[in-house]
What does this fold into?
Amino acid sequence: MGKNLGIGKIRQERVSLSSPFDDLPDDCIGNIISLTSPRDACVAASVSKTFKSTSEFNSVWEKFLPPEYSSLILESQVSTLKKELYFSLCNNPVLIEDGQKSFWLEKASGKRCIMLSARQLAITWGNSPQYWQWISIPEARFKKVPELLDVCAFEIRGWMNTRILSPRTHYSAYVVYKTRSGCHGFRDLPIQVGICLVGQKATKRFICFDESADRIKRWGRRELMKSKEREDGWIEAEIGDLFNEIGCDEIELSIIDITSPYWKRGLIIQGIEFRPVKKLW
It folds into this structure.
């Protein structure tokens, strides 16, 4: 009985402990939280009742939203709490620039993420219906995506201005794709990829759209960026990474088959995705 009373007393003392922030005005605490990050704001909400209430302020979450957020939301969302708008932009990518790009926010940091549609890529023979066809599929973000029917020369290039990305941020770029059941010509084929700022030299790497389980490959010594299946059912392979300093440069990228003389088919390209490199917290 005495032991239980002792535990109760300790708990009561812990509850009664006050935070030095309790004496600050709520607006001041809210301003401090808004200078951190969305992840830190959520952590702060679990620290004390004071932080929990102030971390919900619209003024806090509006700092985490992009300046043009009002153009990215539905008219019915105008009166929605800013915290809810923030997580809506994290979980529900929106189409921008006439449906040519997909935009969303990284949940932990609020950094911008972008997927460049295949329509904005230069695909060799991409507008020739005997080689590529543009199709509509429900799982794609964009109205139409290209499906490879039959080509020998496989080459995709793209360009994008870094203004649309978050400045002073390290990004990785990924090609997002699917393969048809009749995919042919890509099995264990090294595809050279590269990305850089225009005027700089790109670091060349290799990916494989259709990799077998064989351990020994003719090109085993080359650096291979592994593909992985995503939660949305697509597959992604990393092209490379770059640091966006101030957001006024041009990015160029390439995805090229440089070895195979054989015809290829059965590949669907959704686009090129740019995401901040995840930090180890």
